[in-house]
Amino acid sequence: MTEEPRKPLPFEPDTAKKPKVAKPAAKKRPPVVMNKPERPRSNADNRIPEAVSKRMITRSVVCCGIPTLAGIGIFIGAYFLALNGMRLPNVVVLLVSMGCLGLGVMGLTYGILSASWEDTDGSWLGLDEFKVNFDRMKAGYKANKELRKDMDFD
């Protein structure tokens, strides 16, 4: 009886010595240029201006700090009330504290997006600046999404 050589399983290494065949050279795509500035950019061009940075910090401290401190204060206040015999339902304390902490996170975002990038400080609440900066952020997100779609080689 003659035995036929068995086929190797897909996960087994190929033990038969085969002559190496040169693979065809893959076509190289030209590199995708992300940014073509008309002039050389320095690190100073990429930084947030000092005045804008101070406005962002100030607004973020106010818009984030107050709700965050309130959330922590509610939690601590509920603890002291429980020590004095007045128990609040745990769910109420949890939800109110988490709501305040969530407002703190949203306040951080609002504080950054409501800062004016102009030479002026902007309005007290920063609603107009928020709208402008939010629209800029959406436009940047869409442009980045399109760029990623163009760079997809599959």
End-to-end separation: 50 Å
Instruction: Give me the number of helical elements.
Output: 4
Structural class: mainly alpha
CA-based gyration radius: 30 Å
Biggest sheet descriptor: none
Query: Uncertain segments of ≥5 residues (pLDDT<50)?
Result: none
Beta-strand percentage range: under 5%
What is the total tally of β strands?
0
Helix content: 55-70%
Mean model confidence by pLDDT: 81
Q: What overall form do the CA principal axes indicate?
A: flat
Topology pattern, helix = H, strand = E: HHHH
Helices, strands, pairings?
Elements: H1 43-46, H2 50-83, H3 90-113, H4 127-151
Helix pairs in contact: 2-3
Can you describe this structure?
This protein is an all-alpha fold and 154 residues long. The protein has a domain at 49-149. The chain has helices at residues 43-46, 50-83, 90-113, 127-151.
From the structure above, extract its key features.
mainly alpha; 4 helices; flat; single chain; 154 residues
Short synopsis of the structure:
The chain is an all-alpha fold.
